[in-house]
Amino acid sequence: MRTKTPEQKERILTAASGLFGTQRFHEVRMDDIAVVAEMGKGTLYRYFRDKEELYFAVLARSSELFLGRVTTAVVEVEGVRAQLEALVSSIIGYFDEHPHLLDLIQRAELESALGKEFPWQHTRTELLRLVGDLFEQARVHGEASIRHPDVAALMLLGGLRTVIRLGEKPRPRGLARRIIDNFLSGADALAKAPRAQALLR
Amino acid sequence: MRTKTPEQKERILTAASGLFGTQRFHEVRMDDIAVVAEMGKGTLYRYFRDKEELYFAVLARSSELFLGRVTTAVVEVEGVRAQLEALVSSIIGYFDEHPHLLDLIQRAELESALGKEFPWQHTRTELLRLVGDLFEQARVHGEASIRHPDVAALMLLGGLRTVIRLGEKPRPRGLARRIIDNFLSGADALAKAPRAQALLR
């Protein structure tokens, strides 16, 4: 009986990742994945029963890589504004590099309604936690005081999803800065922030 | 040959709408729709070839009803803040009343990637246009000056989608107000808005 190796599995995942991330789900064939991974289709099937199982594994792996990228980007800078900008940049950047990833997540999410595990769930939870932690640190250090932090985190991450999907391409310069400026200081340039209002009285 | 009537079609759509909106797609059976619509399954199939076609029709109809509801809510109030709050309330309200609508939209969106028409596209475009118009009117009347309006509109509507999907339920009181406060004045209570900053100098 032939053994399975982590290296071979990794080669399959890398090949599948590239194909699922850049082509539509129904266009990706197990044959193509085997060709890119440079192995026979029989070997491929020793690791993954079918395309469905492979694509769940791809999503779980992508999920970890994505979270690693975002977390690294955030810890590399200081101050809540820079950290939120780094978060936004790295999220948009990752999805722009994997143009079909959102579709894959959406597909998996629909299937999770049928009782399947949702491989992106962990990332979603961790991302919300990361944003919540940034808000909390900013509050402790007196850098920012985020009102309604739970709703604010959902609005920020959900808004990003739609900017990634429907926003202008190529991305306008300074997009992350615009998003965070609007997020922290408000989209309305005429609005007075509560503290400034108090100072004006 | 039996004739088709608009009344009968409407009865089917209403029945299907109720079932698709409150049950998962795979749980809804043509038999159940026929029972709720109080007609034979044969009659049902004279109007819609299969469940797929019927659900596209349901989505197209839901799309119109939704847009009507939101537009009405917005024109009933005055001032950009009240209008945006009405927009947010009516969007969240509609989706909360149709708990599986987002899944249906998502499913249709994935299928549109396979070349099918996306029945929610018109609503999406119109909603973005409505928000854009509100921003523009507010600017003309000196009520608000929305920075980066295109990105701001995507962030607002995309954020709402995620609040609808993942936000706390039952919805906290004043949710729409919280969202619009953060949107217009910024999530950071310590941030100084540009105009107030100028006044403070």
**Mean pLDDT value of chain A:** 91
**CATH fold field value of chain A:** Tetracycline Repressor, domain 2
From N to C, what is the helix and strand string of chain A? HHHHHHHHHH
Computed CA radius of gyration of chain A, to the nearest angstrom? 21 Å
Shape of chain A: elongated
Structure characterization notes:
The structure is a homodimer of 201-residue chains. The radius of gyration of chain A is 21 Å and the shape is elongated. With 201 residues, chain A is an all-alpha fold. The model of chain A is unreliable at 195-201 (pLDDT under 50). In chain A, 36% of the residues are buried. Chain A has a single domain, classed as Tetracycline Repressor, domain 2. Chain A is built from 10 helices and no strands. In chain A, helix 5 runs parallel beside helix 8 (149-166), helix 5 crosses helix 9 and helix 7 (121-140) crosses helix 8. The interface between A and B is large, with 58 and 58 residues.
